[in-house]
Write a structure and sequence with these properties.
globular, 342 residues, homotetramer, alpha/beta, seven-stranded parallel β-sheet
Chain lengths: 342, 342, 342, 342
């Protein structure tokens, strides 16, 4: 019996989650709900996905445009075991009561607050604590990358204190015509920026502080980390520590991968759908250890990195796979993480 | 017997041509030659392509990096029926004598001058004149788009005079870290810019003048046209004329496709490899006819548009398919042009 | 007796108009009104300008932040002969009744519609028709540039038909952190774009059609024009025609001025306040005449070009200078237009 | 008797240094030397500066274009007490023997290596060690900002260890049409990036490590610092420490100054020539102290910040002002640093 997964919100994340669900042999897509009636809905139709209207008004508008939704959000929830909420920030909180009323498990995305579900999820860090829960939140792209990499150092007993400077992409490509910034940078007004504390919702013991800024590009986040280690360690030890955690990959300047755009080009060339990179890509030959200090930088594909985490969260909440490593392995195999190039 | 196609130059165009060759049931990839030894060559290896070194020095460097090329350019040319030259501007002209010496047919790209081959190619316009030639040049992305669309108007007997303003993308994504422009626009110093006269190498009768500028983005070219028609015509007649020519597609503002980045997002979403768009995408609801004047704008994916043309040029030079429509149909079917969405 | 000028709205345009008023020997600045309480108001204070609160709430907020406005908009209007409305689009229309109630002359900016005042102003084109009017609208940056240059051709008896492609800057520098676009271009959905018809509010006889797009830069607009002349003419004739109209300057590619950013750098280097360029800067060595066709491109500083027009409009409405050439000469001399470099 | 200052290289820095020299009452501009013959030389002529040709060929080219240089570099050096070398990286080193042969004091810019002169200069840090030297190097924009701010913490006895992430602007505005990057970020391949060690050429005792990246904008550098203090300290103490060092200014998010572009706009509005900001601008309300850790971010105008330092270096080398504070005060007063707004 496959898990029936509903996707509510068919945007940047929802589209990727829906595609990833379809690729898992233990899941099927119950349907996607949204309220748009433009090219985005036509893509869902072309993919052959069951379409539902997120609201009554949307249902009418969809019918007017010839989309023939199978029903509204309520009927979608009835037919599913679990819903992945990929709606915009603010909408997600309003959806929670609907999911509770429908008696359905629910996964929220990182735009939501930790308090909405009381649990924040990164597969390699705390899969087991999510087993059989009604709800969890897959943390944001920045937090996911932070947790994966700091977890690696922590598991190796190397992490004392982490200080990060996160230079964020300004907006996503699809809305860069309305929501961009231009020839400037915007520092986050508060220190710590929210990503540091957010990582502590997954691993409370982390000593982590982050500063953040926004740069005028839409390719990827670029994180810079300054780590105090628990002891002097070699570069090799550190790299080994990173290799021990799934969904961390290494790229190299001396392989010609010298900037965010090049990594993105590589992803397109190795055939990744949409050019997505699900891994955190650490620059191996930039990484430096000096005594008890470690410095490194990596690239985060903010549109893609949470997708495999979401797939794992589905299995964790539904309790159908109780071993984190097994779930991660299945997800990775289905998506093609680790089989090629990186 | 399949046509054996060599690809010399495994860059933005070469990679796409190699992939497209592999998809044709009447062609096989004899191999790719280049001199890089970084991630680009690793991609070729991962694809399982026969690899050759473009020069003797490159062969050594490749061996040093563990790539084990099967031979040099000479051996590649010996094993092929035709070579597609995708080397940078300037290198192509130096390669011509090599191809002649090898007695092999050759296709050059739009960076080369018309004089290099004496023939310039756009499949829908002059396929037949390329039949059995030793060499041709597939014209540049801007010229290909110009020819496809003006041809449409000309075939419908509507084209009197064409005046275009071509706003070009500044550079390609993969080299945007070294070769970009930033917060400015650069007008082409000469009028007509080279694209107008270049279109006349394919259709000499065109009355066409172009102005051009460069904009700080790497997504696509945006062409604006002001056409004097031979007579008053309706919008529908004009659209019908465009529909009659292959590899022209329509996009609509009222479908949410309002800017270059949105079209690019759509291509990724409908599963196009690398997000490529092989069609000229005309904004249908922007197109306006006023009396005997026609105004329209379209988007050109400069990395992709010449790829199907190159495939057709292979068949034309080799003479294995003498009917332009048949070749275009086969190429389109193999790539997936016209089957979906657009 | 100097003209007392009120400036309502102390933003990009208002700040420049206030400074320009101060430089005129026949005008004095009655004060500036706004509702912001951040650095922008501190600049007004530093300049020593009389400050007024645009609304009652603003007055309180200003007092809270220690700005001590001299009064509200009402008192400013009482003390002035004329008001220049530099408030955002939409606000201007709501202000009109206030100005009428105060019995004061008023100038609106190009964000307003022609219908708001029934008169649209460009000094070199229709100064005299504005004499003694209660209200006028100084047309937008794009329209001002269009009118200045097409007027030149018309006055020389050369203008038959004008077709333009206007590539607009996406936003102004000061708000580029919230209001930008990023790595894309946005075509205007309608043809003609509004600038063509808008030019006809100043010179109704113009046969002009414009297409427009938005580019990801905040430096300047770049207009491309394709002109059908009334007869064959020489390049020199055309250049002479442009020279005969004030506030048109020439720049040259062979002088190293090859892109928007270079022109902007020149303006800073010749000491223009804020780097402003009040002139339309035509590329002299790009301009081309072919038979009865003329092609040219120019750069428009969208923040500055309407400032001298506004100063002239003040004199025209107040009727204190009845000769257009005299007013233009005075304005130009006070600002420094034409004395240097260009 | 005024100091006669020669400026060799009339580019981004040379133009600013020449203007700043003219504003000092104890200096006069002996002349500027360059080899360009485009708008840049015309600006020098317009400013009324004595012009010299950097090379014999340049002299001919200048004469051909009607610039009439007064002589070549040799004659300029003869007539001056000191030369400020503002030539591009690489050229400076080749000029050193010329200056030695001419028996003239010389100041190099931060593109040069420390070894070229054996002394690296920041006025507030080590003015006295430069007194009567033949040569010094004014360190780069990034290093100047780093030294000014770390010096402040060190003088207050607060600085233990400094770790910085420097996000650099990609290129200068005037060459953004040829030398930009586009929609990407480029991490510096080495850690520490050169700025950390470079600061130690001025203050050897600093414990400082920097990472750096390049962002696609041309406005300013944005530095993020994570400081380990010698002891717990209050925010006020830290701010006081920064205030005690000249050419550090404070900006505030709650004053509307929220991004690089806004600060740049403020500089234009307060009438700074070219919109230059000579100060390091620290965001006061972003600065955070947590126990013994300090976090802050600031903006560096890379075109302007070294200009007052260069003026001070002139006095130090010539020994005409032996008190650092006096020199800094004179330079600041002449330029207008500290009198307004900030």
């Amino acid at each position: 019996m496959k898990l029936k997964v509903a996707v509510n919100g068919y945007g940047v994340i929802g589209r990727r989650v829906a595609d990833a669900v379809v690729l898992q042999d233990d899941m099927e897509l119950a349907g996607v709900a949204d309220l748009v009636t433009d090219w985005r809905m036509r893509v869902a139709v072309q993919r052959g996905f069951p379409i539902f209207a997120a609201t009554a008004e949307a249902r009418e508008a969809m019918n007017d445009r010839g989309f023939e939704p199978l029903g509204d959000l309520g009927s979608l929830l009835e037919s599913a075991d679990i819903v992945v909420d990929c709606t915009p920030k603010g909408v997600d909180a309003r959806n929670r009561p609907l999911y509770e009323a429908a008696g359905i498990r629910a996964i929220f995305q990182g735009g939501a607050k930790h308090e909405l579900t009381g649990h924040s999820f990164v597969a390699s860090a705390n899969y087991e604590s999510a087993l059989d829960r009604r709800m969890t939140r897959v943390v944001s792209c920045n937090t996911t990358a932070t947790v994966r990499t700091l977890l690696a150092l922590r598991q190796a007993g190397l992490l004392q204190r982490a200080r990060g400077v996160l230079v964020r992409r300004a907006t996503d490509p699809w809305e860069s015509h309305t929501d961009g910034i231009l020839n400037t940078m915007v520092p986050e007004p508060g220190i710590p920026s929210h990503q540091g504390p957010d990582a502590q919702t997954v691993i409370p013991e982390l000593d982590v502080v982050t500063m953040a800024s926004k740069a005028p590009q839409n390719v990827a986040h670029l994180h810079h980390w300054i780590i105090e280690l628990t002891r002097t360690a070699s570069r090799d030890e550190v790299i080994e520590a990173f290799r021990a955690v799934p969904r961390i990959a290494f790229i190299r300047v001396d392989d010609g991968i010298v900037a965010l755009n090049v990594t993105a080009e590589v992803m397109k060339e190795i055939g990744r759908p949409r050019g997505d990179m699900w891994e955190v890509a650490i620059w191996e030959d930039i990484l430096t250890v000096e005594g008890r200090e470690l410095f490194y930088a990596y690239q985060v594909d903010n549109q893609a990195i949470v997708v495999p985490e979401t797939i794992d969260a589905i299995r964790a909440l539904c309790g159908t796979e109780r071993d984190p490593e097994q779930s991660i392995r299945r997800t990775n195999a289905a998506l093609g993480i680790g089989v090629a190039f990186l």
